[in-house]
Design goal:
This protein is mainly beta and about 400 residues long. The chain is built from 5 helices and 25 strands. Strands 1, 2, 3, 7, 8, 10, 11, 12, 13, 14, 15, 16 and 17 form a 13-stranded mixed β-sheet that branches. Strands 19-25-24-21-22 form a 5-stranded mixed β-sheet, with no helix packed on it. Strands 4-5-6-9 form a 4-stranded antiparallel β-sheet, with no helix packed on it. A hairpin with a 2-residue loop joins strand 5 and strand 6. The longest helix has 17 residues. It is globular and about 70 Å long. The chain starts with a helix and ends with a strand.
């Protein structure tokens, strides 16, 4: 009887140790661009109870950056907002506009707390056939009266939280066929989000230096969507306008169902299965891994950095200026650099000169203001290290 009790105790201890709890101090405020790999979709079982997921041998198809710039607008900073992320809001099946969602990290959780929108101008000829028709979004921003909860601290297996938040964007619209000339309009949407921690276990992922170590993870099933309404001149938009733009009152957009695997020390997921508007019983649409600050299974992160490092200066440059780069390892020969925008699109590339300052990297004049990634590559095209810089 004593032996049975001892075995039961050891089993309980093992399972309890793997079931981590993530608290506020486990999730640092992001201060740089995350490198994310899009990869072939592995199989995923429905049982998430104390499992082991090894994705270290999956070779990515592409890389892109996910950026959370520090918020500097005084009114947003005063409201406790730390960073923002630029995302797209769906208008109809063929048209999206850009917004910055303002994110607050605090002891209770991570919440979307406000929105900022730069001025945007769109021609409506693809919808109306008239090149003079337009939709103009003025610059605007505001603090929400109801936040959307991205994380709620502390959370562990079987935790859950949900929120509904009202959003809107004002614009003017001109459509000659409907005698509309700079008529004020508004799109209103309610963001519905529900998170449920459905399991836990261990996970290792692919990195370009080798398999990552096995991390304790929590599995978050996220249901998210937007419900839209449209107004013209302060009244619900009439059916001819709705039909003309293939939109409808109460339409569901920005369907973003996903399963995220979270570890301590990283705000972005370690891995993510994206389902879009599909149910979780269907096949996922995409699979992503984030190797940001990932430690290797065979060597420490510090040891890797000693072998190879890059310094950029200045890290804020003007359009058309030169970017200086210092490569620490004098033994690297025949290696290249690549500059990507935050969407993972290659902007420019060239050759590295090991062990000395490179003062001949002239940035293309067409680079628009924003955050970019400078990536040093070995001669077999494996990315060794990535640093960010800003073009103003």
């Amino acid at each position: 009887m004593k032996t049975v009790f001892t075995l039961f105790f050891l089993t309980t201890f093992f399972f309890g140790k793997a079931q981590i709890t993530i608290e506020a101090n486990d999730i640092p405020i992001p201060d740089e661009t995350f490198r994310v790999f899009a990869a072939p979709i592995p199989s995923l079982q429905n049982d998430f109870n104390n499992k082991v997921w090894n994705y270290s041998t999956i070779i990515p198809a592409e890389m892109f950056g996910v950026s959370f710039p520090k918020e500097e607008i005084p009114d947003f900073v005063a409201a406790g907002i730390d960073v923002y992320r630029t995302v797209s809001k769906q208008f109809n099946a063929d048209f999206n506009f850009l917004t910055d969602i303002e994110i607050d990290f605090n002891e209770n959780g991570v919440v979307e707390k406000g929105m900022y929108v730069e001025e945007q101008r769109y021609g409506l000829a693809p919808f109306t056939g008239n090149n003079k028709d337009s939709l103009i979004i003025p610059r605007q921003g505001y603090i929400y009266s109801d936040v959307v909860q991205q994380m709620k601290f502390p959370f562990t297996n079987q935790s859950s939280w949900s929120s509904v938040g009202r959003r809107y964007i004002d614009f003017t619209i001109s459509v000659t066929a409907f005698n509309l000339n700079n008529i004020p309009a508004r799109m209103v949407w309610y963001v519905n989000r529900k998170d449920t921690i459905i399991g836990f276990g261990k996970m290792s992922i692919y990195t370009e230096q080798g398999p990552s170590k096995s991390y304790d993870v929590l599995v978050d099933r996220i249901n998210i969507s937007a419900t839209d309404s449209f107004y013209l001149g302060g009244q619900p938009a009439p059916p001819p306008i709705l039909n003309g733009f293939a939109i409808q009152q109460g339409q569901k957009t920005n369907l973003g169902n996903r399963i995220n695997f979270y570890r301590k020390g990283l705000f972005l997921y370690l891995a993510s299965f994206f389902y879009g508007g599909n149910t979780f019983s269907a096949q996922p649409i995409d699979f992503f891994m984030c190797d940001h600050d990932a430690e290797l299974a065979t060597s420490s992160k510090d040891e890797e950095k000693e072998l190879f490092s890059v310094a950029l200066y200045p890290n804020i440059v003007s359009q058309g200026d030169k970017l200086n780069v210092y490569i620490s390892d004098k033994n690297l020969i025949g290696n290249t650099y690549v500059v990507y925008d935050i969407n993972g699109k290659e902007v420019t590339t060239g050759q590295l000169v090991p062990g000395q300052v490179i003062d001949e990297i002239s940035l293309p004049g067409f680079m628009s203001p924003g955050t970019y990634l400078f990536t040093a590559k070995t001669n077999n095209a494996k990315m060794m290290i990535t640093e960010k810089f800003v073009v103003r």
